[in-house]
């Protein structure tokens, strides 16, 4: 009989909550990173590269590659794999270096 990952680790997460990704509601669990919550919702890319607009999402998952950069609650260049999801978080696809709206 197969066991779920939650059973294997004895996890007992609290109630789920909602974050949004480009306005789309996404369900997250306490303890999940933003990247994990997005992956759980089937969202695999939330950034485009600076020069070629190629899609990027989580790659290493441990804060080393910077592929997972996202704008989280208005702050660009956050590593989604390291940021714990919090109720009401607003995630926005990051384009380029994340400062497109700034006049600098
Ligand atoms: S996935 Fe590599 S730094 Fe986040």
From TrEMBL:
Keyword Oxidoreductase carried by entry: yes
A family per Pfam: Fer2_4
Gene3D superfamilies (alphabetical): 2Fe-2S iron-sulphur cluster binding domain, sarcosine oxidase, alpha subunit, N-terminal domain
GO MF entries: iron-sulfur cluster binding; oxidoreductase activity
Keyword Ribonucleoprotein (UniProt): no
Swiss-Prot/TrEMBL keywords: Oxidoreductase
Protein name: Proline dehydrogenase
């Amino acid at each position: 009989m197969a066991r779920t990952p939650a059973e294997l680790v004895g996890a007992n997460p609290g109630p789920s909550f909602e974050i949004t990704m480009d306005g789309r509601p996404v369900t997250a669990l306490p303890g999940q990173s933003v990247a994990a919550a997005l992956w759980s919702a089937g969202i695999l890319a939330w950034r485009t590269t600076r020069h070629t607009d190629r899609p990027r999402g989580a790659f290493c998952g441990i804060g080393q590659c910077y592929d997972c950069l996202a704008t989280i609650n208005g702050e660009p260049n956050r590593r989604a794999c390291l940021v714990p999801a919090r109720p009401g978080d607003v995630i926005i696809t990051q384009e380029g270096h994340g400062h497109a709206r700034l006049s600098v």
